[in-house]
Amino acid sequence: xxxxxxxxxxxxxxxxxxxxxxxxxxxxxxxxxxxxxxxxxxxxxxxxxxxxxxxxxxxxxxxxxxxxxxxxxxxxxxxxxxxxxxxxxxxxxxxxxxxxxxxxxxxxxxxxxxxxxxxxxxxxxxxxxxxxxxxxx
Length: 137
Hints:
Layout: H1 9-26, H2 28-35, H3 46-68, H4 77-96, H5 100-103, H6 110-125
Helix pairs in contact: 1-2, 1-3, 1-4, 1-6, 2-4, 3-4, 4-6
């Protein structure tokens, strides 16, 4: 995973999803094995569990900070995380299974489409900045 340097926890949350999508697209067989829990002995697979725990810590830390800084529409950060995970997993699965031959957005590659959809989700969870009215004298 590449480093993302930003003070914005919502952007960091999105970066984890974007990195996961890039990984899944470039490693479809590995994605199939890791994501289909019946194909792996998850409880006795130390490396995948350790990697998964590290990713969860990044996501949870970003969401806790975003909530603390009042950057999210919803105060239910677990729901936001699950929705993000479901979206990323579903997009990766659609890509791997070849759905984007029909579902890619016009003028975009399949990979561009999955990244665009993720960016739209990240935008939708972010609370709009509060703008104060200008003072009149």
